Amino acid sequence: MSDRRLRAGALAIAGIGICVAGYLTYVHYAGLQPFCAGGGHGCERVQSSSYAKLAGIPVAVLGLAGYVAIAAALLAPGERARLAAAALAVSGFGFSAYLTYLELVVIDAICQWCVTSAVLLTALMVLAVWRLLLLTDDGEPLERGAA
Amino acid sequence: MSSREKQKERARAEREARERAAARAERRRRLLLQLGAVVAVAAVVIGGLILLSQKKDEPNASSGAAVAGVADARAMLRGIPQAGTSLGDPKAPVVLTEFADLQCPFCRDYALNVLPQIVERYVRTGRLRLELRLRRFIGPDSDVAGRAAQAAATRNRMWNFIDLFYRNQGQENSGYVTDAFLSRIATAAGVPASLVVKGNTTAAALEKPMEMAESEAQAAGLESTPSFLIGPAAGEGKALDVQSLDIDAFAKAIEPELKR
């Protein structure tokens, strides 16, 4: 798969991530409860749990910053930008996995928005690492391009 | 081209292919190392922030400090009758039953931000009676805390106990619900500390209400906490449909029941 397609796919996913994290940031500061399909309290419980902030910063804000940073790295050219995008995506995936663990084991509630974000970060990690390791500096697949 | 030249050409092509493959492998190894290094730094930073957050969230009461919120709890409950798990006039026409887990931060938010206004508007005026059903699905600390609260109920001080518990609530399942923590909360709630320590809360009389709370919640299809049932004192309750944990949402759901 070409770099153009991989980058377009990753950017689309990062865009969705920005919308999800942006919505959660908005409801946090507007004092609203996030919409939770099915009418469950999972989203509210997770968002209002003591784990909804990291060092005083709402996790939704951290997520928004992360998605914006990934999008910026995807838009920039060169190997360093691809490395930055992959590192951000892998770190985001790791943090997301930690939050999912908290939801399942500690908080005992599932937030649909957080699950969506976890899926998005997993896909972003795959695409970003693919771009980093399986493409040449010119953005061609390694099998066809020169190393 | 002679056969020998063809052989040379092929050997050169093979050598170049091997060199390209080696260069690709070297590049991949270098990038993986760089990626690993950057992610490791990120993991250390995030891990540090997580530890910092958890340390800041440790409850005051378990670390030996004074119990927070004693005056506020007394002010909210002053003059309102308590009997076991009930708060309010026994003759109140409508009953609001809450299903809670003492470790649940969402229950704490309700207890600290909404409950005082419900008490002031509806319970103090004798229109509504509150009932509390304690669940323990978050973890072992929920069970320990729930039993202690049931012990406080035997002295008609459950609502003081749970209000102070929420005001000093710690991190879920962190093991903060120690005998020392429970003793401080109990003492501040006007309950003898000896009643709430772990060795003294194993009686069937304390276990039974919690088993019943679980059965009642499951029968009503209540899967999370806090959840509520509302209904006439003499009849069955129905699930209270509230969209958010604020007094306006609760008032909207409670007042039609009071008018029936």
Summarize the structure in words.
The complex is a heterodimer of chains A (147) and B (260). By secondary structure, chain A is mainly alpha-helical. Chain A has helices at 3-30, 42-47, 59-75, 79-107, 112-134, and strands spanning 53-54, 57-58. Chain B has 260 residues and is an alpha+beta fold. Chain B has 2 domains: 1-56; 65-259, Glutaredoxin. Chain B has a 6-stranded mixed beta sheet with strand order 1-2-4-3-5-6. In chain B, helix 5 packs antiparallel against helix 6, helix 5 (140-153) crosses helix 9 and helix 6 packs across helix 7. The longest helix of chain B has 54 residues, at 3-56. Chain A binds chain B through residues 32-33, 40-42, 44-45, 48-50, 53-56, 79, 83-84, 86-87, 90-91, 94-95, 98, 106-109, 129, 132-133, 142, 146-147, and chain B through 20, 23-24, 27-28, 31-32, 34-35, 38-39, 42-43, 46, 49-50, 52-53, 57, 104-106, 109, 137-139, 171-173, 223-225, 227, 243-245.
The strand line-up of the biggest sheet of chain A is 1-2
Give Rg of chain A in angstroms.
17 Å
**Biggest beta sheet attributes of chain A:** 2 strands, antiparallel
Indicate the CATH class of the largest domain in chain B: Alpha Beta
What fraction strand of chain B? 5-15%
Shape of chain B: elongated
Quaternary status of these chains?
Answer: heterodimer
The secondary-structure element order of chain B is HHEEEHHEHHHHHEEH
Give the helices and strands of chain A as they follow along the chain. HHEEHHH
Helix content of chain A: over 70%
Head-to-tail CA distance between termini of chain B: 105 Å
